[in-house]
Here is the input.
Amino acid sequence: MKKPLAIIALLMASTGLANAEGVLQLYNWGNYTSPELLAKFEAETGIKVTVTDYDSNDTALAKIEAGGHGFDLVVPSANYVLIFAEKGLIQELDLSKIPNHKNIAPEWMNVEYDPGRKWSIPWQWGTTGIGVNTKVYSGDINTSAIWLDPPPELQGKVNVTPEMNDVIALATMYAGGEPCSEDPEILKKVRDLLVAAKPHWMSMDYGMEDKMATGDVPASVYWNGAIMRARLKNPDIAYGYPKEGYIVWMDQVTLLKDAQNVEEAYKFLNFIADPENAAMISAFARYANGIAGSDAFMPEDMKGAPEIVVPEELKAAGHFLPACSPKAQEYITAIWTELQK
Here is the structure.
């Protein structure tokens, strides 16, 4: 019986490989991928997309670097694209397979971290600021003092998202420095600020959309799209842009070096660069995207939303988060490690 069983096993393995065609493994931030988009993609291409969530750039990087993950595409933030590339974890794109590459908006085409968009296709962009329940706190929401020096009504009621680079950058700007600073004096001030502030926080957690909407969390350092989603459920929620400095970021889709479903990945990359499809991504997660022509398909309630349209007087306070030097990243990691104690 051994020989027939071996043949059957071989046939089953071959069938499994055949069935694996027409699938795609996407590794993306949690609650960030439109189910409607995936349904449309599958209907048009026959390719089924499986999405695995992560909660931070560092989590994604560690998982990919460890190997054996089985993912085809990953969605790093701008300041991590070069890190993924330098570590040999992603591959340069064959632009001939992405005719919709031409739809990338000019302002997002020749970005510092990926000139000409040879490594990545835009997914969404937004800001990191502060969500506040105005029934609990009626003061100025456009300041990082809300979480670094909480007023009495917010003490013990503030969440800080555990995204290391965002948190350290916001604190650095509040302390008068620039993101990725290597100045020991500024960094000591940042460390002292964070260590002193932490006892006044209630948590360092993700998943704030529902918690803010229900009133369980009155204030949080968080991302603009998620705060908009919370406001649509609870009109008392407002989004603040810290005048001391807030972060402008972009996430983009990259093709992993060891991707198994490469042709399927290229079809997806081309699909998301179509204006109507890019608008579907934005309509779900409530962030802007980097595809020209998508505005015509965007939901009406996003066009003038305070979480999307930055007040004129606060535009200059926005800083695009760069890839930090190894020395700066070492400082950042050391501060973050101390903050976790």
